[in-house]
Amino acid sequence: MTQAPLKVAVLASGRGSNLASLIAARDAGTLPVEFVLVGSDKASAGALRLAESAGIPTLALNPKSYPDRPSFDRALFDRIAASGAGLLVLAGFMRVIDAAVVAEWEGRAINIHPSLLPKYPGLHTHRRCLEAGDAEHGASVHYVTAELDGGPVVAQARIPVGAADTEATLAERLLAEEHKLLPAVVGAIASGRLRWSGKAMFDGRPLAAPLTLAQLS
């Protein structure tokens, strides 16, 4: 009996390059998922156009149409739940989500962040990395909790920082790694290798350290 593909919803606020990497992996047959919804807080987001061209249902809600953040988050996440998604992927969704709403998705929502968490939660991660003189930079995928970029980290990709690197070059090089890391993590969840049981589990054992791309392959 063939297992039904994992139903995935994605939230994005921008151009959707990480979403594009997920769609490409699905189309290549390496990511056994069904995308049931792509949502955004910006009707102009490129991610929505990508989803439309791929035949994925889309949703754009305007936060200004709601009296407060919890009301917006509740409306958005009610629509995600109605899509039947078993996994929610935040791929460049630039909003802090209400704690009570997030709590209902414990272990079923992941986020990709452009830093080696716990370093540099929040914005301007490439600039902060350069200003600190770090020799290494990277991206992290973590389970979403109420704490901004503070949930359990499950996987990381690392790149060296060169003497000539700028914010732009660092961002460009790291994005190429993000485009490999996120599909690999979603694939591990879809296959059951990575799962949540009150904590992150990989191949049946508690995850002791963030996974690498090599471990996920």
TrEMBL record:
Residues that bind (6R)-10-formyltetrahydrofolate: R69, N111
The Formyl transferase N-terminal domain, residue ranges: 7-186
Top EC group: transferase
Record Gene3D superfamilies: Formyl transferase, N-terminal domain
Site entry: Raises pKa of active site His: D149
Any single Pfam family the record assigns to this protein: Formyl_trans_N
Active site, UniProt feature: H113 (proton donor)
Enzyme Commission identifier(s): 2.1.2.2
Binding residues annotated for N(1)-(5-phospho-beta-D-ribosyl)glycinamide, in chain numbering: G16, S17, N18
Pathway connected to this protein: Purine metabolism; IMP biosynthesis via de novo pathway; N(2)-formyl-N(1)-(5-phospho-D-ribosyl)glycinamide from N(1)-(5-phospho-D-ribosyl)glycinamide (10-formyl THF route): step 1/1
Role summary: Catalyzes the transfer of a formyl group from 10-formyltetrahydrofolate to 5-phospho-ribosyl-glycinamide (GAR), producing 5-phospho-ribosyl-N-formylglycinamide (FGAR) and tetrahydrofolate.
Family: Belongs to the GART family.
NCBIfam families per UniProt: PurN (TIGR00639)
Name the record gives this protein: Phosphoribosylglycinamide formyltransferase
Organism: Dyella agri
